[in-house]
Structure formats: C-alpha cells, structure tokens
Write a structure and sequence with these properties.
The complex is a heterodimer of chains A (115) and B (111). With 115 residues, chain A is an all-beta fold. Chain A contains no helices and eleven strands. Chain B has 111 residues and is mainly beta. The radius of gyration of chain B is 13 Å and the shape is globular. The chains are: A mainly beta (115), B mainly beta (111).
Chain lengths: 115, 111
C-alpha cells in the first residue's frame, strides 16, 4: 500500500517567493496533519484537518502560512512570501480517526531552504 | 511551552546492551503515548504505544513504561542493535487525535 506522499522532497528558493508543499494522504484516512521539524522545537503541529475541514490552525506561525484540503486525497501548505526562518523540514501525516487512538503515518517530508 | 520533553538530545550504547530513552510530559490529561523512530531523510515511523490505563507495553525488543504519577515514560530497547540507530520521538495525546511531540533523542548503537 502507498504511504503518505509528499512533494517536492527538496525545495530551494529565494526569500519573498511563494512556496507550495503538497501531500497525498493514505487512502481511507480522514485526518491529515502538517508538521514542521526544527532543532529547537522538534515536531510542531501547524494545522490539522478532519474530513477535509480545518480543525485547529493555532500552530500556523503567521498569516504568511495557509493550508487547504480541497478533497480527501490532497492537501497543500503554502508560504507567501517565504522568509529564511521558514527553512525547515515539513511533514505531512494522516490517520484514521475512530473512537480509539490511532497512530499517525508520516510522509518522508519536504526539506525547504529559503535563501 | 513544550508539553512533551526529551531532555537528552543524544545517547550512545554498545551493541547488545540496553538502551533507555526518557520522556517527560506536563499535561495530566494526556491519555495516550507513542514512540516514533526516524531515520535520516525519512519520515517518523510508529514504533510502540501505551494507553494511560497501562503501565507497561511490550513488543519484541521494545518496551514502553509509563509512570503517571511522575508524568514520565521511557522506551527500553533490549538488546540494542546497530540498526536501532535513529532519532526517537515520544508523543502524547489527550484527545486521541492531536499529538504533541518531543524534540527527539538521537540514539547511536556502537557495534
């Protein structure tokens, strides 16, 4: 079975440019999460969706960040304009939300470098 | 504020010995805890979990212990193998959906 698929794997761009990260969750999963990994704070939750609806975006650092989930099989995280401090590895994860606890399944991440 | 803390950024262990990775949390409402393993250039992969109704869960060489009164959990790997060298993240949840992660501990198993 295909896991969570993220693209691109690497992105290098100049500050001020728009960056779009993409995620395809595991088929059948109805929860999707965007994380950012930094040395200082580890894995930070940015936003998560249940059934394509954003539930909690309190982790989104500022208005330059936005996320969408137009359907159950696709989500984007956009940064506009990008800044050097946005450089990090961004992970997408998905899970099947039931009454019981379920672990999240992660993609391999997008390594973003803003020059 | 970090609700889940891993105070040891790195750990080195000889092959065959026990590896003990520690994790502390502050939120007494957390009721589900997990450990993830991460290799370079890959995403974290789920390793083992424990519910707050238990104090121990074992899966092969991996055992997770939970001490609710101390708000502490640990992961024991016995015996440690070179392939266990990775970054280990602990995570906790109060809702079964949103997880809070620690900053990770890099384990090196020396052959």
């Amino acid at each position: 079975d295909a896991g969570v698929i993220q693209s691109p794997r690497h992105e290098v761009t100049e500050m001020g440019q728009e960056v779009t990260l993409r995620c395809k969750p595991i088929s059948g999963h109805n929860s999707l999460f965007w994380y950012r990994q930094t040395m200082m704070r580890g894995l930070e939750l940015l936003i998560y969706f249940n059934n394509n609806v954003p539930i909690d975006d309190s982790g989104m650092p500022e208005d330059r960040f936005s996320a969408k989930m137009p359907n159950a099989s696709f989500s984007t995280l956009k940064i506009q304009p990008s800044e050097p401090r946005d450089s990090a590895v961004y992970f997408c994860a998905s899970s099947w939300r039931t009454a019981s606890n379920q672990p999240q399944h992660f993609g391999d991440g997008t390594r973003l470098s803003i020059l | 504020d970090q609700q889940v803390k891993q105070n040891s950024p790195s750990l080195s262990v000889q092959e065959g010995r026990i590896s003990i990775l520690n994790c502390d949390y502050t939120n007494s409402m957390f009721d589900y805890f997990l450990w993830y393993k991460k290799y370079p250039a890959e995403g974290p992969t789920f390793l083992i979990s424990i519910s707050s109704i238990k104090d121990k869960n074992e899966d092969g060489r991996f055992t997770v212990f939970l001490n609710k009164s101390a708000k502490h959990l640990s992961l024991h790997i016995v015996p440690s193998q070179p392939g266990d060298s990775a970054v280990y993240f602990c995570a906790a949840s109060a809702t079964g959906n949103q997880f809070y992660f620690g900053t990770g501990t890099s384990l090196t198993v020396i052959p």
